[in-house]
Amino acid sequence: MTSADSIQLRVSRYRPDTDAGPHWQEYEVPLRKEWTVLDGLNHVKNEVDTTLSFRWSCRMGICGSCGMNIEGEPKLTCATFLSDYAPGPVTIEPLANFPVIRDLVVDLSDFMAKLPRVKPWIIGAEDHSQVEPDVEFLQTPGQLDAYRQFSMCINCMLCYAACPVYGLDPEFIGPAAIALAERYDLDSRDHGTSQRLDVLGAHDGVWACTFVGECTKVCPKHVDPASAIQRYKLKTALHTVKAFLLPRGAR
Amino acid sequence: MTDLRTYKPRISTWWWTRKRSYTVFVLRELSSVFIAWFVVYLILFVYAVGQSETAYRNFLDWASAPWVIALNVLALLFVLLHTVTWFSLTPQAMVVRIDDWKVPAFHILAGQYTGLVVVSLFVLWLVTL
């Protein structure tokens, strides 16, 4: 049944118990103006085939769970409308560059292991005796503006799926982790720059990036990981030059 | 936790043909080979000038061979691609802040192209002197 009222979803299926690799399965779903790809998948799950597996949670671009490759492009399925792909079919695959657990569900444990390595939290001044209890750390709007865009990351992993460097070299710490490191580095309350530099200046850190720039293009929250990475390159390079030229006290 | 039997997709050698932006990226990376070629060409040229007038004449004869001209034209195209793409990426890599004012990308780009024109004019003046 194909008509203007319906659209075909071409979904990548993989069941680890029975399948050697992924294969395609087609589903017809109603084509409604306000339906997203996620609505289509939920329709399949509820009405057509309960065995289909995929992740989702908030349906409103906040949680970052429902990232998938739609027509080869990493997208949040809750923010991608079926009508934009009419008359179809719409190809839906799991996020690229990650191992597939089942159907559209990918294994994110690699990122979960990498994220804490860049210490994405505020690292206070070492000398705690200087800090009064219950003290407030005020920021000007300008200081907030310096890191604000990097704080918008929702860990949806679209940038990793778009990054050919991560695909070819899974050791690369990756765009989102570096953008989050930059978020805390640029925070006026943070004192952890040198600690993060040790991690990001290593061979699997910022220097693995060749500036393809796709991470920034696919980000649904308008974070600019490509910028964060290049700015870190400048920072690590300056750090090295300073360490070489300046006496210890002046660094 | 039980071991997951995951499927690990392989990246095709031709991944960069899948998307225009990937192709442009790979061409930009490839352009560094032609930058290296221009460096070699310049070294050969300076070396010939330093040797003797005959060596310089021989270099000019070699440089006017059709294949050298073709290679240089191709190299020039790649160097231009390299320049334009890197210039357009600079505002992303260099965020210049003056107090709380973020210098707009346009100013950084304009600065780079002005620099290119000034240096090019200087080189032109130098070789036509």
From TrEMBL, chain A:
SUPFAM superfamilies: 2Fe-2S ferredoxin-like (SSF54292), alpha-helical ferredoxin (SSF46548)
GO terms assigned for molecular function: 2 iron, 2 sulfur cluster binding; 3 iron, 4 sulfur cluster binding; 4 iron, 4 sulfur cluster binding; electron transfer activity; metal ion binding; succinate dehydrogenase (quinone) activity
Cofactor(s) in the UniProt record: [4Fe-4S] cluster; [3Fe-4S] cluster; [2Fe-2S] cluster
Domain 4Fe-4S ferredoxin-type: 144-173
BP term (GO), one: respiratory electron transport chain
Domain 2Fe-2S ferredoxin-type: 9-98
Pathway: Carbohydrate metabolism; tricarboxylic acid cycle
Keyword 4Fe-4S: yes
Entry EC number(s): 1.3.5.1
Keywords for the protein's UniProt record, in alphabetical order: 2Fe-2S, 3Fe-4S, 4Fe-4S, Iron, Iron-sulfur, Metal-binding, Oxidoreductase, Tricarboxylic acid cycle
EC class name: oxidoreductase
Cofactor note: Binds 1 [4Fe-4S] cluster.
Catalysis performed (reactions): a menaquinone + succinate = a menaquinol + fumarate
InterPro entries for this protein: 2Fe-2S_ferredoxin-like_sf, 2Fe-2S_ferredoxin-type, 2Fe2S_fd_BS, 4Fe4S_Fe-S-bd, 4Fe4S_Fe_S_CS, Beta-grasp_dom_sf, Helical_ferredxn, SDH/FRD_Iron-Sulfur
Annotated family: Belongs to the succinate dehydrogenase/fumarate reductase iron-sulfur protein family.
NCBIfam families with a match to the protein in the record: dhsB, PRK05950.1, PRK12385.1
Protein name: Fumarate reductase iron-sulfur subunit
UniProt lineage: Bacteria, Bacillati, Actinomycetota, Actinomycetes, Geodermatophilales
From TrEMBL, chain B:
Keywords: Cell membrane, Membrane, Transmembrane, Transmembrane helix
One cellular-component annotation, GO: membrane
One protein family per Pfam: Fumarate_red_C
Statement: the UniProt record of this protein carries the keyword Lipid metabolism: no
Top-rank taxon, per record: Bacteria
Membrane-spanning intervals of the chain: 21-47, 67-87, 108-127
Name of the protein described by the UniProt record: Fumarate reductase subunit C
Species whose genome carries this gene: Petropleomorpha daqingensis
